[in-house]
Amino acid sequence: MANLLQISVLKFLTSNLLERHAGFQNMLVTREGRQFPGFYRDMSGMNVAYAVFCYPKALYPDVGAFLEAIPDMAKFIDISNDVLSFYKEEESHSLPF
Question: What band does 94 get if pLDDT is binned at 50, 70 and 90?
Fold first, then answer.
């Protein structure tokens, strides 16, 4: 589980570095790159880390009891974040697509 957490943190840090890069800031998503917003959201969201945090080792020592739920939980976290943050993006006119 520690590796999943480390990967999430590294992806998050990478996304933050990308945001500062001028090439990223001026990039327009084309039709061919329509998967990029989802890719970037996955990179910046730490969804897997939040899903793993739901299962403390003291209560769930057997990883097999919850491991296959992680992808569904990560997707739910992404969608919930989109819904809950939409109003902020709407207010600032910076929709992510």
Answer: low
Under 8 Å between Cβ of 78 and 56 = no
Kindly report, residue by residue over 28-61, the tens digit of the pLDDT: 889 999 899 889 988 998 999 999 999 999 999 9
Q: Over 31-85, what HEC string results?
A: HHHCCHHHHHHHHHHCHHHHHHHCCCCCCCCCHHHCHHHHHHHHHHHHHHHHHHH
As a whole number of angstroms, the distance between CA 1 and CA 27 comes to 34
Q: Which two tokens stand for residue 75?
A: 């997707």
Q: What does the alpha-carbon distance between residue 38 and residue 79 come to, in Å, rounded to a whole number?
A: 11
